[in-house]
Structures are given as structure tokens and as C-alpha cells.
Amino acid sequence: MRYHVLLLSLWALMLSACSSDSGGGTTIDVHLQDAAGLSANLDRIILGGEKEMLRSATIDDGGHFTFAFDQPLADGLYQIRVGAQKATLALADTDREITIDGQLGSFGDYDFTVDGSDSALETAETVRTISQVKGLEELERTIDAVENDYTAAYITFNSLLRAGEQGLPIHERVVARLPQDDANRINYTQYLDQLRQQIAFQKSQQLIQPGNPAPDLSLPGPDGGTVSLSDLRGQVVLLDFWAAWCRPCRQENPNVVKVYDRYKDQGFTVFSVSLDGVDDRQAERLTPEQLEEARENHRQKWIAAIEQDGLSWDNHGSELKFWSGEASAKYGVRAIPATFLIDREGNIAEVGLRGAASIERALQKVL
């Protein structure tokens, strides 16, 4: 019996020893010359989001300070701040004992050594390299060569903030490397959605002018089918952006109905685009089931508004994405109601028509 108890005790000690050897938290030991007496902070960084302060420390007379954690720090981006100097580094959850050695005055230039973390070392080396990179192609090659996904995202996000459409493919490739549910990926994706909308709006300001071809739209209809603006070529079309929730739109609808009823037999029709629905930011906070339910609720409100306002034409479409849809971005729509009169050749004839008389005057010129 004693023999069995002894064996069990030894087995427990062995398990404990193995656990101690393979476990342990993360420790970051830093030495910065000329930093004695200052305070240091360690923050968790989310791209495009808020910082989370994890630890603070007072720097001793020798310029040393330590951030110690009982558990390993998760994969991600972390920033060390000392006064006005700061450096952001990627860490891996396998990092245990990290040492950084440098000078306070050049810390923000990443002029320091790193031991114990390949991820942090790569971040520092890449930041130093990136300042010498010339041109988008060289930057792209540099980013593609980065092994740590968080370092690649951090460098790309900060280097290409003003690159516009040219930088979009690099942004998209880097975002795809991040874990699906990671906060950095979520924030980065939101930034890219905004960037795409901004690019589309800028293009629309050049394209959506009288005399220019009207961009085609293909949208889901109320019954689940697809309605396309190009299918109406040969007719004069009033492209009308509206929504069931938009009071000015609902007040304008009787004017549109009046003109439609008067000229529908003369080659005139209406293509209505609804901005009902759930935008991308709201959608990210919902489960797939909740999102489907929310969009179906908005779809029913849209259908009810069509019936209530007597919008009897067949051409109704909506992405059910509120202001996140591509249709509104393509036409540069930032407020509704918004209208565009399109002639029989598919060119924009007039924009911003309000009131039955205004629509009718413009219509008579192109019928």
C-alpha cells in the first residue's frame, strides 16, 4: 500500500515538474540608458482601436525595468512607452523571457536589441528597414517577406494609410492572414470597408455627371430575384434612392408616383433602390442567425412601404445593407432621397430632381 502511495506521489511530482517546465508566464526585461527615474508602460495594441494598458513600472537608477506576467501573453501587438518614446512589437504566446537593450533617445527609432522573441525582433528589424524602402512594389515585397502576421498587419496599416486604391490589394492580403475572430482583423476590415466606400465615392464624383454613362446596378428584388438597371436600356429611367425609414423619401414618393402614372406609357419608368437594412458595422455584432432575422425584418418593412406608397413599377432593388451597400457608394449618394434621370441611351441626363414639376420638366427634354 505504501509502495502505491509512493508511486502516486512521485507521479504527481513529475507531472508538476513537467507543467512547470512547459508553462510559465511572459517576462519582458528592458534596459534603456538615460531613462532612470522615468515611468514605463506596456499596452496591448489593436489596430485602429484603443490601447489597453497592461502594466506600468518605475525605471531604476540603472535604467532597468520589468513587465512580468504569470500567464503567457497572447499572440498580438504590444507597445512599450517611456515618456515620448514608444515602440510597438509583435509577441508570440510561446515567448517567455524577453530582453530589450537600448537608449532612451533612440528607442522610438527601434534602435535596440531584442533577445528571446523572434516575433519582436522581426518587428524591430522590419520597422528599421521600412524607412529605407522606396516605392509600393518594394514595400509589398518587404511585407510579403515578414513571417509574423501581426507585424505584417502593423507595418501595412501604418505605411499605407494614405495609399488609397493602390494600396488596397496589399491591405486585403495582410488582413486575410490574421485570425478570423481577432480584434485587429475586425478593426482592419472596418477600415477597409470605409476605404472602399471612400474610393467609390471619389470615383462617383467624377463619373456621376450629366452626359456620362450611368453605372449599372444589379440588386436583389423583394421576391429574391434580381433587377438590373441595364435591362431598362431604351427607356427613360428615374433612378431613385430611398428607404422605408426615410420620412423625406416617403413624402416625395407621391410626386414620383404622379409622374410615373402620367408618363409610363411613353417609355418612362422608375428604378427604386432602397437603403433599408443592416450596415456592416451592425452586422459584425450579430450572429448569422440574428443578421438573417434583422435583414428579413427590414425586407418586410421595405415591401410594406412599397405597397403603402403605391410604388407600382416592377423595378425595386435593395442590398439590405443600409449605408454599407455598393449601389449608394457607386452613385456617391450621401443623403436620400437622391434621384438621377437616365436617358434612353443609358446616359445621365439630370441629377437631384425633387418635386413632380421638376421631374416632369427634365423628363420632357429626354422623352
Automatic annotation (TrEMBL):
CDD domains hit by this protein: TlpA_like_family (cd02966)
GO molecular-function term, one example from the UniProt record: oxidoreductase activity
Protein keywords: Signal
Thioredoxin domain: residues covered: 208-367
Record bears the keyword Signal: yes
Signal peptide extent: 1-19
Keyword Signal belongs to the record: yes
InterPro entries, per database record: AhpC/TSA, Thioredoxin-like_sf, Thioredoxin_domain, Thioredoxin_ResA/DsbE_sf
PANTHER family on file: PROTEIN DIPZ (PTHR42852:SF13), THIOL:DISULFIDE INTERCHANGE PROTEIN DSBE (PTHR42852)
Protein name (record): Peroxiredoxin
Protein's organism: Neolewinella xylanilytica
